[in-house]
Amino acid sequence: MDAHDQIAFRAQLRSHLRMVLLLAAVIAVNVGVAFLPLDRGMRVVLHVGLAVVAGGIVLLFFMHLLSEKPSTFLMLGCTAVLFAALIALPIFAAHNHPLLTESYPAPAAATNRTSHVP
Amino acid sequence: MQIPYTVEAREDTGLYNGKVAMWLFLASEVMLFGALFSAYVLLRVGHPNWLYGADKHLSLGMGALNTGILIGSGITILMAWASLKFRDLGGYKLWMGLTVVLGIVFLCVKATEYASKFEHGIYPSTHTFFAVYFVLTALHALHVIGGIGVNAWLWGPGSKMWETEPERLTNRVELAGLFWHFVDFVWMFLFPVLYLL
After folding, report:
1. With contacts defined as CB-CB under 8 Å, which chain B residues touch A69?
2. Which of B148, B132, B149, B147 is nearest to B190 (CA)?
3. Spatial separation of the C-alpha atoms in residues B150 and B155, rounded to whole Å
4. What is the DSSP-derived secondary structure letter of residue B39?
5. What does the pLDDT look like over B164-195, one tens digit per residue?
6. What 3-state DSSP class applies to B189?
7. In chain A, what is the greatest distance between 2 CA atoms, to the nearest angstrom?
8. Burial letters B36-67, b for 16+ CB under 10 A, else e
9. Of A76, A117, B28, B109, which has the highest C-beta tally within 10 A?
10. A47, B55: Cβ pair inside 8 Å?
């Protein structure tokens, strides 16, 4: 690396280290959300949303995806679509399949196998 | 015979071959963990008596500690790569050594957590939640072990390449860093999904 490259690289490194602080803050907020009196749906949305932000920081800055070549985006774009399908399938299945939503007994009536869990 | 594109980028991809291979490998890893996350979603929404409030059964403190350790190791491996970029082999050895140590500390914390669960009679068969918990965290731990192995090799015998092919070693460390950050990336989802939801 010549002197100019070194200066640019140092600036990039400093930016990455600042992102560590942001990442720590996002995770701290995610932990804090667990102590808020929220309903289950809102809790899921907030925890998963903050996890996506934290994962995005790792992917974009620490894995240098921001400065990657288009060929990388092609590979990861296909992966992202397939991953989204993998996660969406069980959600749609749960909403459409009677076995998953209707035939089970209500939670209160179900046997609690974890009652001994400390 | 010289292996082509170990340092210089190919014209068509714009990347050296190792990096293309690493991104493809990580894409396959996303699908591996994706299948397990998908199973988790299906089991969670379909289970009549899901174990909500898992943080009461798992140690949130230990989970948070391991999150901090992984983030710290992400910084150290970044600094190891940066040291090689600045032609500082001593700095590289220090930062890469710290990365290996932090990886081992992560595994020790995880082992303590597992031991605590077993002491309380909690096994994968106890509840579907714990089956998911043990499978996901054990698979993640296997990746940590693999990463430690590669990092330790690059810290020790692998670093001899510095004398003959410094650019190639720098690229190898960059690839090891990509994998290590991926392990970090997966934990960013495992931690809230298992410990907080």
Report:
1. 13-15
2. B132
3. 9
4. H
5. 999 999 999 999 999 999 999 999 999 999 99
6. helix
7. 71
8. bbbbbbbebebbebbbeebbebbbbeebbbbb
9. A76
10. no
Residue A5 in this model has a pLDDT that exceeds 90: no
Cα dihedral value A70, A9, B88, B160, nearest 10: 0
CB neighbour list of residue A47: distance below 8 Å, 6 or more residues apart: A30, A33, A34, B192, B193, B196, B197
Chain-chain contact of B39 with A20 (C-beta, under 8 angstroms): no
Closest Cα partner for A53 from A14, A85, A25? Answer: A25
- Cβ B15–A63 below 8 Å, yes or no? no
What ipTM, to 2 d.p.? 0.91
Q: What is the spatial distance between Cα B129 and Cα B141, in angstroms, rounded to a whole number?
A: 18
Does B108 touch chain A if contact means CB atoms closer than 8 Å? no
> What is the C-alpha separation between A74 and A80, in angstroms, rounded?
10
